[in-house]
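In this supplementary section we document a worked example of the pipeline. Step one takes a protein sequence of length 134 as its only input; no multiple sequence alignment statistics are reported here. Step two produces a three-dimensional model, which step three serialises into structure tokens for compact storage. The input and output of this example are shown verbatim.
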Amino acid sequence: MHTIEVDFDVFKALTLRRPNEHVTENDVLRELLDLPARLAIKEVNGNEPERNKGAWITKGVTFPERTEFRAHYKGRTYLARVIDGALVINNESFDSPSAAAMKITGNHVNGWNFWEYRLPNQGSWQSIKGLRRA
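The serialised model returned by step three reads:
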């Protein structure tokens, strides 16, 4: 995930173009740049957009259905996947990266530091650490 710096006026303009909290600044920029949306959005009740039901949304970050997660802990590699709006490990669903990490370690763990992700049909793994909104 790359980071760009913008001044306050640019940030304010991006924020004002967000019709609701489910639309991110990145979504606004994609629209302004005529890029395709990252996730399918459908209209619900006339004008309220709703994310793809299979996507997992946590702390303002959306992971599409089938996004893979991995973590290395005590010499083992653990794998998880986004299925039906949750992070799933061995058929057990979790609503946060930290809850999933705690299941593996048995200790309180910051899941945002613990996991890496790979989007569907992508080759490279990336840390989820930098994705979370403040």
